[in-house]
Structures are given as structure tokens and as C-alpha cells.
Amino acid sequence: MTNKRWMLALPLLAVSVPVWGQDVFQGDPCSDAGGGGICDEGLGSSGQKDLSLVPLAVTSADDIIVVGPALPDPIGDKAYSITSVEVEDNLRIENALRDVPGLQQFRRSDARSANPTSQGITLRGLGGNASSRALLLLDGVPQADPFGGWIAWPGYDALPIDYATIKRGGGSGAYGQGAIAGTVELFSKNVGDRLELGAAYGSRNSVDVDMLFGRELGGGQLTVSANYARGDGFIPIIESQRGSVDQPAEYEQAGIAVRYVAPLSENTELQANVRAFTDDRERGFEFSDNHNDGADASIRLVNRNTDGWQWSALGYVQIRNFDVSFGGVAADRNSVRRVFEQFNVPSTGLGARFEVRPPVGDDLELRIGGDWRRTEGVTNENFFFADNDTPRRSRRAGGSTATYGAFVEASLEATEALTLTAGSRIDFWSIDDGFRREIELINPFPGAERNNAQFANRSGTEFTGRGGFAFEATDDLTLRGAAYLGWRLPTLNELFRPFRVGPDATAANELLEPERVKGAELGLDWTSENITIGVTGFYNQLDRAVANVTLDNGPGLFPGVGFVSGAGVFRQRQNLDSIETRGVEIDAELDLYGLVDGLYLRAAYSFVDAEVNASGAALAVDGLRPAQIPEHNGSAEINWRAEKGHGASLSARYIGSQFEDDLNQRRLADAFTVDGNLTFAVNDRLLVEGRVENLFNTRVETTVSGSNIIERAFPRTFWIALRAKFE
Predict the structure, then answer these.
(1) Which domains, from first to last, does the chain contain?
(2) Residue 172, exposed/middle/buried by CB under 10 A (0-12, 13-18, 19+)?
(3) What CA–CA distances, in Å, run from 135 to 101, 372, 589, 633, 669?
(4) How far are the Cα atoms of 134, 547, 579, 623 from residue 576, in angstroms, in the given order?
(5) What percentage of the chain carries pLDDT values higher than 90?
(6) Cβ pair 644, 598 in contact under 8 A
(7) Residue 218: CA atoms inside 13 Å, Cβ hemisphere, count?
(8) Coil, helix or strand for 221?
């Protein structure tokens, strides 16, 4: 993990050529040809150059440099808690992000075994719901599923991703709705001319294969990446509770992405992206398979005229389709029957965004822009099965949402030491064409309507803003503070689709209101020659938080879901009065380059005190902790990388206990895991790697049912890998 202060100039790098274990920048930044003769190569954390001192590399006056990212980082970002993470080629994206304390998915399992609908992300304890409350962007494009708000993690191959920037804390700012808990941005690499191939074989017949191809083409940069992963999987149910129906949860996933970045003029650049993925998983017993397909395309124009107007314009489309089956397992876990299937859930997301930065002075930065996003989707479901192949009833439900927003933000370097920033935005939203229809499928009344609800269209307006300061008290110490307002529109899934998990059933709620967050933070960053420490204290209040609220126990017939057995509970999505969180985040790095070249230590910790405020039908959860939110979360790593590519690392993660349910009756135990990595460079083209996940085979509990059936995350897994590079 790398502190943000050492990553600020990454979007300005002209070309980077990866070498095993490090990045070497073309040209000498200290030479005149390198673009300015800046020779102070300050060291950042983990032994990297202080990239804020490296100018844009230009080899001649006629060169047009292809860089790929958007506009430079706003100067107002100094006021916020920001961390950057280098994405290693051998890690799944969701696992790489887990080193950031306080950043979590709804459940602890990764995309090899979790249900895709449980993989929304959040920060700072603003959870209790599987929809994302942190906004994930890839090269500026929102990544949340248009229908459900979760993240399709198998759609991202780590190889073409350079790094991730995590901006903790809410506030819609320039990013639009959804950034309730913060923003996570993924940035693509600029790879130059090269071909890189990787293959890994792991425990339980696991295979990971990836490819990265880069070519300078037509004055621009073409990048093609592809990945494939499969595995026999592990049995999710813990050993002492297994029956004859329990089996390994197999998975098979693949994706391809094409990116082309081309200069249109000295200052203007075209960026085009297309990617597609497919994802098949099982959940460890018959009738638990699920399938997820997706395709995205985007075009962005960026103008980085440093002497005049700067601007960017983005347009994108997301296409998703999802299907899943659910089985009801007998109490002795020796028989299972199909109880439900979502056989087709098509959805589409469309959007656009623009931003302009007029030339208003050397010390003042002004950002003006707007954005639009539309989502639409329908779920097609069969349920109440007479046998495993014959459903009694069918349901269709869905609708569309739209948001239109405009923002303005100004940042001022008031003095050499003080930076001030403030901004506001207005958003208009609408929820349209909502419906839910259920029909009988078998005799005596095939085709008869059980329900045909058409929901009234709704719309509204949200005003939000944010502001902050950063004060460099000394050369080593920076004090910062910020306050913010943000909001999130409920997803189509939350509004219109009931669902089941095991014997538990949750009804949708078409009357859900948008969530709103207000919060504040104070922090400090201290940096010396080889030590970087960041500490942030925060407070958030999420009003009208959408949660799955327990209303009754089975057995019985309940509105919106039908029959619930005696082993299950009936819930409905509702707006709670609020969720309050307060806590502290600590990041620290120690660079030991003076003792051993390439050696550094990293540690991070998050403490979150979270509490639900509720009344009315949700009164039973008042004063309790939100579901799936641990109080303590920490990680540590020791990492050594030699120039020639040899290396080793050992990382540890701790996650505190948390509750599966809103009533705080089903506790998931805390867990401490250790991962290891050892690499050997045979030559400058071939790398051999061995690694282990969950070295001590810790039981990481992910879910616990009402009958106390416990599922776990990935057990100990060994890998051996080869990676070849040709330039």
C-alpha cells in the first residue's frame, strides 16, 4: 500500500516500462531531455521516487505523449483521507483492496465462492446492505451493477490495472450519487510495446491464466488483456455440519478487455475501452449455480492544456445479465430440492460525464461539470416448485432510474502551507415504470394473475456539498479536515425484487427513499525520510439507510414473499432512521531501503463504532450494530523486492467479529489469516512464483443461518506460477 502523497503524479507519467519487481521510467528526469532538469529525486514510501517531483517526460518539442488517465488530481484532494494501492499481477482485485482497513464487501468471501449479489463494497462501517455504498470507478466509468449495485469482480483482471486510489469519506462532489462511504478508482496501465503471459496452478485443480499485449499503434497505445480462471472449489459448509448434499463449490471465469488511447492534438487525447466477462459459480450443493455475463464500452476525451482550459468528456454503456438458482436443503443436509430460480435478469446502464477547468490563476482551481446516469432492468423468476423442474409460479419485476447532476468546486492554495477547498452539487432523480407481476404456471389456473402491481413514478431533488482544508504545519506534518454531504438512490433490486437466502425471505419495498450521509473527519499525515504515518478520525450519520429489517419468524405466509418455513425469518427492505459510525483509521509504512534495498514494512488499522437508530416496525434493531460490520480490522505486510525481480512477502490480516443479521443474534467469529509469496527471476524474461493463501487454514466464517449452519471463505491454497515477458 502506498500513501497518496507518493502517487499524485502517476496520471502525468509519460511511459513506464515494468521490470520484475519495480517500474523504471523512460528517460532521465534529471536531464534536460527528460523535461526540466529536476534532479531532486525524493523518496516516497516503499522506496519509490517522489513522483510529484517528476515532470512530464518529453523527448523533443514535436512529441505528443499518450498518458491514458483523466485530468490531473484536483489540488483539493489534499484535504481528504486518500490511500493508493499498487495492484499486484497475482492478486484478485477484491483481495488486493482488502489491505485497506475499513474497506469491505458485504460478505467476507471473494468472487470464487460468494454469491455475486453479496459483493457490494463499503467503507467506514456504512454497511448492512449488499448494495455498494462506495462508488467504484474504472478509468472514470462507474462499475456497480445497474440492477443490484453489487460488483462483478471476475470482470477485472489485475494484469492491466496499475493501481487503485481509495478516497475515504462520503460526499457526492464531482462523482455523483453513490459515493456515500467513499470512492475507489481503478487506473489502467500504460504498457508500451510488450507481451506478457502468466499461468498458475493451485490447490483443488485451480488454474489462473492471463495475457497482456501492448503495442504503440498509429501514434497511440493499444492494450489487449485476457484472463481465465477455474477451480474445483472447496466445500463452503464447515466440516462438522456437512451432509451428503454438500460438495465443492466450482467456479469458472473469463474476461477480455481492449483499450486504445490515441492523441488527437498536442493537448487532447481519445480513450476507448471495451471489455466483456463471464462468470459461473456454484454454492456447494445442487441447485445453487449462478451465472453472470457483462460487457462495457466507454469513450473519453481529455484535454490537458496546462496554459488554458482543461476538460474531459465521458460516455459509457453497461450491459449485464444474471441468473441464479436456489435449493432448499433438509435439516440433516442429506437431501435438497429446487425452491427458486432467477433465470434471466437483463439490465443496462447508460451514462455520461463532463468536467471543465477554466484558467483562473496559478493558486486557484475551479471545476465545473455534470453527469447523467440511467439504469433499467427486469428480473424473471420461477418459484414454489412442485418438483425440481416444475415451478408453480412466475414473477417479473423491474423498472428504471435516472439521475441528472451538476457540480462546481473551487480549491485555493491560500498560502504555501494552506489549501482550502469547497464545492456543491444538485441532483435530480426519478424512479419510473416500476412493476411486479406474478402468475400461476400450472393447473388448475395456468396464466392466472396472482399479482399485477404498477408502481407510481417518483422524482426528487438532492442538494449536497463538501469542503475541507490541508495545512502543512512543518515540512513533515500536514493537518487536514473535511466535512461532506452525499446521497445514494436505491437500486432496482432493492425497490422491486424480493429474494431468499436459505429459509429466510426478504420483501422488496418500492417506497424506499434515497439515503443521505453527513460526516466530518480530521487527520494528519507525517512523513520523514523513510516513515509515513496517516491518522484520521471520522464521524458519519447515514440517514434513511436501506436495510433488510426482520419483521417476523416463520412459519407463515407473508406479503411479497409467500410462505416462510419455521426455520426462516421474514424481512423487508426499509429505510432506517439512521446508521451512525465513528472511528479512526491508521496507515503506516517503514521503508528500510537504508538497511536492505527494496525492503519495506506496512501496517494499517481501522476501528469503527457503528450503531443503528430505528423506530416503528424496525424498533427491534434500535441501538444494535449494523449487519456485517466488524469493529476492528487490520493488516500488516513485510515485502522485499530486488532489482532483478527476486522477492518475498508475508502479509497478515485480522478482521473482528461481526453479526450476520440485523438483530445481532448470529455472530461470525473473528479471523486472522496469513498469506505468503516468493518470486525468483530466472532471467529478465521469465519469473517463477510460489504463493500461499490462508497459510494456517484459518476458518473465516462468512454466513450463519437461522439453524446455525456456518459457511466459510477460501481455505489454505498453494500456487505455483510462471510469468514470461517479451518486449
Answers:
(1) 75-726 (2.40.170.20)
(2) buried
(3) 17, 15, 26, 21, 28
(4) 19, 7, 8, 12
(5) 60
(6) no
(7) 9
(8) strand
**Could you tell me the pLDDT band of residue 442, with boundaries at 50, 70 and 90?**
confident
Residue 557: how many CB atoms within 10 A of its CB?
Answer: 10
Pairing outcome for strands 134-138 and 182-188: parallel
Mind listing the pLDDT tens digit for each residue in 386-416?
A: 888 889 889 999 999 999 999 999 999 999 9
Beta strand 531-543 with 141-142: parallel, antiparallel or unpaired?
unpaired
Q: Are 57 and 35 in contact (CB under 8 A)?
A: yes
Only one residue has cell 521510467, namely 25
CA triple 674-679-680, angle to 5 deg: 155
> 3-state SS of 290-325?
EEEEEEEEEEEEEECCCCCCEEEEEEEEEEEEEEEE
Number of H helices, E strands in the chain: 2, 43
Long-range contact set of residues 712-717: C-beta below 8 Å, sequence gap at least 24? 712/109, 712/236, 712/237, 712/238, 713/108, 713/109, 713/110, 713/113, 714/109, 714/110, 714/112, 714/113, 714/234, 715/234, 716/203, 716/692, 717/202, 717/203, 717/204, 717/206, 717/692, 717/693
Q: How far apart are the first and last CA of the chain?
A: 28
Segment 637-655, tens digit of pLDDT? 999 988 778 999 999 999 9
Which residue type occupies 245? Answer: V
